[in-house]
Design goal:
Layout: H1 8-14, H2 32-45, H3 59-71, H4 75-86
């Protein structure tokens, strides 16, 4: 497992909070888990968006998607995800 990757139990707890999931109104995201891991990596490592590793895809795409959440009414989605992840028993 990569250092900043989500464990399966963490992913299972947060996947239903996220926009872009299967069956959700609007477009379906290609890979929500990879997107969340990119955002977590950025915050945990303290790097600017442009320094995201290539394994997460283009940094501009990740940034634009993250930046759209509040405008789309999902401002609490990432907070809920972060809380679910950080309050787990390791």
């Amino acid at each position: 497992m990569r250092r900043y990757a989500l464990r399966d139990d963490q992913w299972d707890r947060i996947k239903d909070f996220l926009p872009g999931r299967e069956g959700h109104v609007g477009g379906t995201a290609a890979d929500n888990r990879l997107f969340v891991e990119a955002v977590l990596f950025r915050y945990r490592a303290g790097v600017p968006w442009r320094d995201l590793p290539e394994r997460f895809g283009g940094w501009k795409v990740v940034y634009q998607r993250f930046n759209r959440w509040p405008r789309a009414g999902f401002s609490s989605a990432f907070s809920s995800c972060w809380h679910a992840i950080t309050t787990t028993n390791t």
